[in-house]
Write a structure and sequence with these properties.
The longest helix has 24 residues. A two-stranded parallel sheet has the order 1-2. About 55% of the residues lie in helices and about 5% in strands. It starts with a helix and ends with a helix. It has 7 helices and 2 strands, in the order H-H-H-E-H-H-H-E-H. By secondary structure, the chain is mainly alpha-helical. The chain is globular and about 60 Å long.
């Protein structure tokens, strides 16, 4: 579907990014690379090449280690009530490991990637950075 829309926009002369196809795929590209990191298949490489050809960009949102516990527990506060310090520590370590794996896969990808630290929770600024990322 994206390829069809992209081809159609080019056929009608919309070659500038600001006037062409704009799409967001949440938790898509890097998730596939991480899930299949032990054997990046030709299918994933081909999908990546097609996305690249359509001008895809990747944004990796991260949190600093010192802010992880607060951020994790703020997502679903009720879920974290009664959790031990050890459980919270393990959850933070897991998220740190996952962030590093996403970074590694972004470096191995042909899709240009911007990493944005979201410690300040300045969502409007992050949205602007993503929109302006070339």
């Amino acid at each position: 579907m994206l390829k069809m829309l992209n081809n159609w926009s080019r056929e009608i002369g919309q070659t500038q990014r600001s006037k062409g196809l704009f799409f967001i795929l949440e938790r898509f590209h890097l998730n596939h690379r991480v899930a299949f990191s032990h054997s990046i298949s030709d299918e994933i490489k081909e999908l990546e090449a097609q996305l690249f050809g359509m001008g895809a960009r990747c944004t990796l949102l991260t949190v600093s280690p010192e802010n992880l516990e607060e951020r994790i527990s703020s997502r679903n506060p009720n879920e974290w009530e009664g959790k031990t310090m050890q459980e919270k520590k393990l959850a933070c370590e897991l998220l740190l490991d996952q962030q590093q794996e996403y970074r590694s896969q972004a470096e191995n990808s042909i899709i240009p990637t911007i990493e944005i630290n979201t410690d300040n929770k300045d969502w409007n600024s992050y949205a602007k950075q993503i929109y302006l990322f070339n």
